[in-house]
Amino acid sequence: MTTSDNTPSTGGPSGVSGTKSALPMFFWAWGILTVIGVLLSVFVPHRYMPHMMSNDGNLAVTTTILFSICAAPVAAGVYAASLHILRAYRYRGEGVPPAAPQIRENTKLLVTWLTASAVLTVFVLVWGLGALAAENSSSGNPVVVDVTGQQWVWTFSYPGTHVVSNELYLPDNREVEFRVTSEDVNHGFWVPNFGVQVDANPGVWTTIHTTPDKLGTIEVRCEQFCGLNHAFMDAVGHVVTPSQFSAWLASQPARA
Amino acid sequence: MTTTLEHTATTSSSKAGGLARHQNFATAVICGVVLAWVFWYLSRLLFWQGSDNFSDQSAIMLGAGWMFGFWIGIGAFNAPFQWLFGRDNSHDDNMYYAGKDLGRARYWKYTTDHKVVGVQYIIVTMSLLGVGGILAMAIRTELIVPGTHFVNQQVYNGFIAIHGMVMILALIVAVSGPWANFVMPIMIGARDMAFPRLNALSLWTLVSAAVLLVSVLAVGGLPVGWVVLGTIGDQAGVGMDFFALAIATFTVSTTVASINTITTSLSMRTKGMTLNRLPIFVWGSLVTAALALYAFPFFFVAELDQILDRATSTSFYVAGGGGSAWLQANLFWLMGHPEVYVILIPAVAALFEISSVMARKPVFSYRTAIGAMVALGGLSALVWAHHMFTAGWAPTLGGPFMVTTELISIPTGIFFLVLVGTLWRGNVWMKLPTLWMFGFIFNFIIGGITGIYLSDVPLDEQLHGTMFVTAHFHYIFVGSVLFGAIAALAYWFPKVSGRFLDEKLGRYSFWLVFVGVQITFGAMFLSGLKGMPRRDASYTLAFEHTNFISTVGAYVIMSGMLILLGAVITSWRKGEASGPNPWHANSLEWQVPTPVPLENFDVEPIITEDPYNFDKEEPVHV
Question: Mind listing the pLDDT tens digit for each residue in B567-587?
Answer without folding.
Answer: 999 999 999 999 999 999 999
